[in-house]
């Protein structure tokens, strides 16, 4: 039985993963953030303000939708979608961005700094910073800037300072490196609002806590709609924030199978993937220990996914712990399967998913076909595909 309240320990470890692999002066800064978080999250004022924003700004609770036509097309198990794509800003990212922006304000920070891949975290954070009136700076790889033009435009409209990153592969990992270097210049006046359940303690815990609203809602909703708990719960995994937000509510339900879906990219037998849990090994990246895709010297490898939000060479430490203990199974979907799921859901249900989320939809379609019709699969549809529509249309020649 997994006891969520015991994860992480006081040093930020989930088993052997996580922690603070940082210089002593940065450990002190991170501990200060942890202490501030522990203090503010207990106050009625913070809890009330966040709950009010979730309800009246984000639009929570997000609904669950029975994908009847998709279920009929695939055959087998019933497929339900947790509609995080209907949140204000179009994805689950707004859940933790509001929490981080409010925390920064509480701590008296002058600026919030972050990286973004697909741009969903960037848009959500720029939105939250505009709302609470604090400066926002987002670092984004040049490849992703060109690929995710709609989100780039939104970030600029919302008033954030967008910093293009051209080093390395000019994608998410390089954006993280760039943003972290900028953060080190003034960690006293800046909060690094990490965009997933990665990074040094307390961020894996903090982002998980803010995202846990997804699973809490879904667990209650699915029982009302389907009359029981789901047989399978699934979500895409890059860093892993949408997945851990969904999974946390079901960890103690031993009869519920939990599956994270990684990007196999152009194939697990090629270097062009980001299947960290499937192909990675234990190591350290960006201040914490996790499975990651690394070379013989322990340096992160270049990674690839058609979904910009999933091309990260590491993964959240809690995911690593859950993999090792066998509570969560990690599968993968390749670009072709992702695009097929993207187009199928769009044309069968009229829902255009984010390419990230389409990985989980692809797995659900494949899994459902091998299950009986009384079984239920719950998919966290973590974001909508507005940002990806032009890219997909060009790629498929639509």
Structure, explained:
This protein is of the alpha/beta class and about 400 residues long. It folds into two domains: about 15-55 and about 95-205, Rossmann fold; about 60-90 and about 210-395, Rossmann fold, CATH 3.40.50. Helices cover about 45% and strands about 20% of the residues. It is built from 15 helices and 14 strands. It has helices at about 25-40, 45-60, 70-75, 95-105, 120-130, 140-145, 150-155, 170-185, 205-225, 240-245, 275-280, 315-325, 335-350, 355-370, 390-395, and strands spanning about 15, 15-20, 65, 80-85, 110-115, 135-140, 160-165, 190, 230-235, 255-265, 280-285, 290, 330-335, 375-380. The chain has a six-stranded mixed beta sheet, with helices on both faces. Strands 7-6-5-8 form a four-stranded parallel beta sheet, with helices on both faces. The chain has a two-stranded antiparallel sheet with strand order 1-2. Helix 5 (about 120-130) links the parallel strand 5 and strand 6. Helix 5 (about 120-130) runs parallel beside helix 7 (about 150-155), helix 9 (about 205-225) packs across helix 10 and helix 13 crosses helix 14 (about 355-370). The longest helix has 24 residues, at about 205-225. The protein is globular and about 55 Å long. It starts with 12 loop residues before the first strand and ends with a helix. The mean pLDDT is about 95.
């Amino acid at each position: 039985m997994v006891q969520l309240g015991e994860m992480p320990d006081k040093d930020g470890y989930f088993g052997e993963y996580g922690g603070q692999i940082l210089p002593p002066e940065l450990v002190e800064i991170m501990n200060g953030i942890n202490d501030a978080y522990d203090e503010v999250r207990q106050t009625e004022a913070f809890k009330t303000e966040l709950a009010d924003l979730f309800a009246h700004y984000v639009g929570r609770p997000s609904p669950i939708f029975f994908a009847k036509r998709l279920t009929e097309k695939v055959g087998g198990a019933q497929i339900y979608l947790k509609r995080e794509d209907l949140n204000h800003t179009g994805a689950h990212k707004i859940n933790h961005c509001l929490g981080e922006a409010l925390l920064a304000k509480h701590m008296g920070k002058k600026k919030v700094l972050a990286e973004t891949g697909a741009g969903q975290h960037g848009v959500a954070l720029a939105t939250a910073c505009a709302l609470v009136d604090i400066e926002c700076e987002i670092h984004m790889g040049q490849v992703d800037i060109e690929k995710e033009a709609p989100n780039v435009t939104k970030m600029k409209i919302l008033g954030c300072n967008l910093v293009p990153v051209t080093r390395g592969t000019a994608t998410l990992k390089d954006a993280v490196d760039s943003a972290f270097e900028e953060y080190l210049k003034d960690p006293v006046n800046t909060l690094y609002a990490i965009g997933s359940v990665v990074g040094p303690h307390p961020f894996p815990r903090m982002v998980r806590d803010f995202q846990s609203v997804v699973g809490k809602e879904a667990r209650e909703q699915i029982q009302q709609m389907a009359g029981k708990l789901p047989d399978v719960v699934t979500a895409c995994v890059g860093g892993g924030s949408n997945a851990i937000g969904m999974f946390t509510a079901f960890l103690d339900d031993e009869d519920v199978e939990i599956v994270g879906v990684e990007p196999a990219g152009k194939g697990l037998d090629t270097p062009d993937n980001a299947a960290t849990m499937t192909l990675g090994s234990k190591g350290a990246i960006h201040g914490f220990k996790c499975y990651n895709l690394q070379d013989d010297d322990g340096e992160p490898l270049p990674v690839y996914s058609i979904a910009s939000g999933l091309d990260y060479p590491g993964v959240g430490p809690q995911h690593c712990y859950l993999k090792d203990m066998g509570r969560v199974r990690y599968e993968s979907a390749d670009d072709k399967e992702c695009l097929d799921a993207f187009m199928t859901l769009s044309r069968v249900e009229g829902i255009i998913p984010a390419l990230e989320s389409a990985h989980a939809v692809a797995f659900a379609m494949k899994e459902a076909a091998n299950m009986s019709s009384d079984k239920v699969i719950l998919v966290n549809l973590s974001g909508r595909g507005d940002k990806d529509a032009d890219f997909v249309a060009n790629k498929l020649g639509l």
